[in-house]
Design brief:
mainly alpha, 2 domains, two-stranded antiparallel ribbon, 51% helix
Length: 141
């Protein structure tokens, strides 16, 4: 599940003219849970639905985990992601890397390189691999 992005929350605030009560009502209506009344509680899809309802243009998810299947370093990053526990189960292929979790990690302060995998130079890929290897090592100590 992808959470609503900062940009989506900003767009909702603008479209509701920052009316906190109205925003809260929209979120409750979308989540169908009176306890979840903040835009922080929305998924990416729910936020896009609210934006569409308010006449705005939905925002596309920016996935930084897209990779080149011909590059061994990219495939190794996927392998490390699975080893760390970032995987989903696919009917056809079994456990596959959860690209959304990897993408969100790449965008976070925890990543040594903040950019999409396909745009990284070899030395940047090495930094990401080292960080993921360290995370896997620490998880299984």
């Amino acid at each position: 599940m992808i959470l609503a992005s900062k940009k989506q929350k900003q767009v909702i605030a603008i479209l509701t003219k920052n009316d906190k009560r109205y925003k809260s009502e929209l979120v409750i209506s979308e989540t169908k849970d009176p306890k979840r009344n903040s835009t922080n509680d929305l998924t990416h899809a729910q936020a896009n639905h609210i934006i569409s309802m308010l006449g705005g243009r939905p925002l596309k998810y920016d996935n930084w985990a897209y990779y080149d299947k011909t590059k061994q370093s990219h495939l190794y990053i996927l392998s490390l992601s699975i080893q760390f526990g970032w995987f989903i189960v696919d009917e056809r292929y079994g456990e596959i890397a959860d690209l959304q979790k990897l993408s969100e990690w790449l965008k976070s302060d925890k990543s040594p390189v903040k950019m999409p995998i396909k745009e990284m130079a070899p030395e940047q890929i090495s930094k990401v691999i080292f960080a993921l290897e360290s995370m896997v090592d620490n998880k299984y100590k």
